[in-house]
Design brief:
homodimer, alpha+beta, Arc Repressor Mutant, subunit A, 2 domains, two-stranded antiparallel sheet, 6 helices, globular
Chain lengths: ~150, ~150
């Protein structure tokens, strides 16, 4: 499918995959720690970690020889998933936190609650889906990509 | 799991589900149009649409009686998934568009390429994962939520 959203979901579209990435943002690096934090079955975790390493989202670094053990760290490509994770967080906070949000994201640079928003890189205003549309890019195959609105 | 990201993924974490939402943003409303645009099996589409209606992301509106036919439209809750879709788009464009991006998002309000970014709602600066951390919110159960860094 000639769509960057579909291609992104091919890599990170499974439920567990994005939770593994979330834990990596929280500083989790070791297999046992992922298992403990996520309550994920080891065989599923193993498959997800392998896929994320294969696609360059995580890198595996050996930290012990006997037995061989690896740590998993976000690559630059993995760190660029931050907006995806945060966009999911914001939506979940808005619609699935009846008892109050579990966690609040702080912005160290300004010292305030981050209250993340998606803004236009040109004018800085918040992006509203009704005020955007898509035009064909250099990689377009479809003659007329649909509106996003 | 006491985490807004996990709760969000519970609803929209399946690959097809977010592509259905993407098509809804593009103005697709009818069952046959979703099938045609996505190449999705009708039984899978039917299950995904039902789930999205049940969770209030889409609403079903009858548009024909004989036979009964429904249109599916984004609710306010569904439209608030825009940042998730766009964050996926940006990441896919960056890493999976070797032949050029399939589509470019324009910001009608300012007339320029949107170049979407995630910014701090307080200071307006781009949010960098290394400059944020999480603190327990009113709904926290875990005594110390991990850093997002």
């Amino acid at each position: 499918m000639n769509c960057s959203i579909a291609r992104a979901l091919d890599v990170i579209g499974e439920w567990w995959t994005l939770l593994v990435v979330r834990e990596a943002f929280r500083g989790v690096r070791r297999f046992d720690a992922f298992v403990e934090r996520l309550g994920i079955a080891p065989n599923i975790l193993s498959a997800r970690l392998k896929k994320l390493v294969r696609h360059g989202v995580l890198e595996a670094r050996k930290y012990a020889d006997h037995p061989e053990r690896f740590e998993y760290r976000l690559t630059a490509k993995g760190r660029q998933l931050f907006p995806v994770i945060i966009a999911l967080l914001v939506w979940g906070d808005r619609w699935y936190a009846e008892e109050g949000v579990p966690a609040v994201l702080m912005h160290d640079a300004c010292g305030h609650v981050a209250a993340p928003r998606l803004s236009c890189g040109h004018c800085g205003e918040i992006l509203d889906p009704r005020e955007t549309h898509a035009v064909p890019g250099p990689g377009a195959r479809d003659p007329a990509p649909s509106l996003i609105a």
